[in-house]
Amino acid sequence: MRNCVVPKCDYKNKHNPKRAMFNVPIKDPDLLKQWQAVLPVRRPLKEFDRVCDQHFREEDILRYWEHTINGTVERMERHKPALKPNSVPVFGQTEEEDEEEQRRVETVETPRKRKERNYRSPEKVKKMKLTEDQQAVENLTIAEPTQAFDSSTVHLSIENLEESVPVQVEQLSHPDFDTLYDEVYEVELPSTLWGIHRDVQRTFIAFTEFSKQTMNVRKYLFIDRYLQYRMAVGQRVMKRGTLSSGLIESVTELLSKLDEIKIRKVIIKGSSSILGQ
C-alpha cells in the first residue's frame, strides 16, 4: 500500500508496489488549486497527501539524470523520480474501462452479495432449530414393551420430549462487516499519518493516527464486527455509535471529523495528559 490520495488507487494498484509518489504542491497555492480541481478528492488537499505516477503523463515525470560528457548524453536513473515544474495530474477512465468495470460489478458476486445470500439472522436460526426439534418429536416411535411398566413414566417422558428445547444462538457478524473488511483500503484516509489495521480473525477493524512528537498512537477509530464504533483521542472516547448504510463514505467522514480534532497538552500535578479540544 503506497497511500495515494486518489480514492481506490491503492486497491487497484496493489500489485504495483514500486509506484513513484509525489507530494502535493502545498507551497504553491495556484498550482494546488489546479491539482484539487483535477483529482477526485472531496476534502481539501493537505500537506502530507501524495499522488502516485499513475495520474501523471509520462512526459511530465523525470525518471533519469541527464549529463553531457564529451558531447555524449549520459542517462542515469534517479533514485526518486520527480515532476517537471508546474505539472498537473490527469485523472479519468476511458469509456471502455468504465464499461468493463460496470460489467464486472454486474456479473461478479461481491463479498457483500455472497454474505447476504448466506446470512441467517438469529431469529431465522432459532426457527430452523425449533422446526428440527418438532420434526424429531413427530418421528419419534415408542417400542412396545415386553415387560410390565409404570404408565406414568411413559406419560412423563412424552411430556418432557414435547417441551420446547432451549436454543443457544450464536450472535453472527453483521453481513456488511465482511464487505467493509474486504474493501477497507478504499476508505479515504485523512493523511499518510493514518494507518489501517484488520484482525486476522475478522472481528474488528481499526484506524490509527501516529504522532510524530510522542511516537505513539494519538487518535483511533475502532469498528467491531457488529458495525459498532468508537472514536477516541488518547484515552478519551469522543463518540460511540453504529454504522449505517454507505460504509466506505461513513468511515471516511468519521475519520475526517476525528482528524480535525485539535490536541492540547494538559499538565496535572506533575503528570501530563492529552485531551481533545
Unreliable runs, pLDDT <50, ≥5 residues? 141-145
By DSSP, the count of extended strands is 11
The count of helical stretches stands at: 8
Give me the secondary-structure category.
alpha+beta
Q: Estimate the mean pLDDT confidence.
A: 77
Shape: elongated
Helical content band: 25-40%
- What letter string, H or E per element, gives the SSE order? HEHEEEHHHHHEEEEEHEE
Strand order of the largest sheet: 5-6-7-8-9
Q: Compute the gyration radius: what is it? A: 30 Å
Strand content: 25-35%
The major sheet is characterized as: 5 strands, antiparallel
End-to-end separation = 32 Å
Characterization of this structure:
This protein is of the alpha+beta class and 277 residues long. Among the domains are: 9-97, no CATH class; 175-260, Copper Amine Oxidase, Chain A, domain 1 (2-Layer Sandwich). The protein is built from 8 helices and 11 strands. It has helices at residues 9-12, 29-38, 95-107, 111-118, 122-138, 151-162, 175-182, 247-260, and strands spanning 21-23, 50-52, 61-69, 72-83, 194-198, 204-210, 217-224, 228-233, 236-242, 263-268, 271-276. The strands form 4 sheets. It has a 5-stranded antiparallel beta sheet with strand order 5-6-7-8-9, covered by helices on one side. Strands 1-2 form a two-stranded antiparallel sheet. Strands 3-4 form a two-stranded antiparallel sheet. A hairpin with a 2-residue loop joins strand 10 (263-268) and strand 11 (271-276). The two termini are 32 Å apart. The model is unreliable at 141-145 (pLDDT under 50).
